[in-house]
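Listing S7. Sequence submitted for prediction.
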Amino acid sequence: MTALGYALLTEEHEALPLVHNAVRAEEAGFSFATVSDHFHPWTGTGSQGHSPFVWSVLGAVAQATDAMVLGTGVTCPIMRFHPVLAAQAAATMATLAPERFFFGVGAGEYLNEHVLGDVWPVTETRHEMLREAIHIIRELWRGEEWTFDGTFFAVDRAQIYSLPETLPPILVAASGEMAATLAAEEGDGLITTSPDAELVSGWKEHGGQGPRMGMLHLAYAKTEDEGRRILAKHWPHAPLPGHMNADLRTPAEFEAASKFIRLEDYDESTPVGPDPEPVLRQIREYADAGFDHVVLHQIGPEQKGFIDFFAKEIAPALELSPATLGS
């Protein structure tokens, strides 16, 4: 069985609509939701152009919902957020939503992390920074005063006083072998964006245990042609290679790179239009690859129609399980 979640994209929507959509999603049967942690949208004009603060959105959603499990999708706790502040923010969130919050972390994208003027490290260095950051977060969650002088970070007599009774699990984002190994060794679960059975297998071989979450992008619309136009307008960077998504610096650079993309360049695995079968097929592909949680990202402004579509066409066709991410 698979738990299905709803993706709240801060790049595409302002804070209040995100809260309202989360309430609708819970009522429709989604058992969990992720909130993206961006300082910048991927594209800044017309199609996206929003950037509400993730922790404010999460706090509001926690109070507006009843049982929905919530998490970051994902936070980079190595540059824009020092791991000490990340540890405090996540601990506070877990007190606002007891046993229904998980902390998703990753090595970040330059798009969001350059804003403090720091040098953008190479991938291998960012992974080692993330490993050290997770260590710091877990130590501070012990609730004792702690000092640390590490390779990348220093902590001076820090102590977190407001801690939840149950600490949230830390899920680590991975798209390759190096990150999957890190997720297995340091995390309580795995997050990725493709139904990659080899990634899950490698994660398990290195000792990975816990939830496995995949993200499915789709563009529900009244027709396939309309869905394709929504995809191209509101998620234009989708066909860009992974290294470009990590290393381009500004929304303007993403917009410039996306101008060279044609409609036929978009991956056919992204369902478009009103037919539920492609969506169901992708969800089953994730399940077959070993994922037990799939978060659905409806691209573009048509969120209410998509949530209704989910309730009528997607949820009844699947044997769903509750989310196990928050405890």
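Caption to Listing S7: primary sequence and predicted structure tokens for the chain studied. The chain is about 40% helix and 15% strand. The chain has one domain: 3-317.
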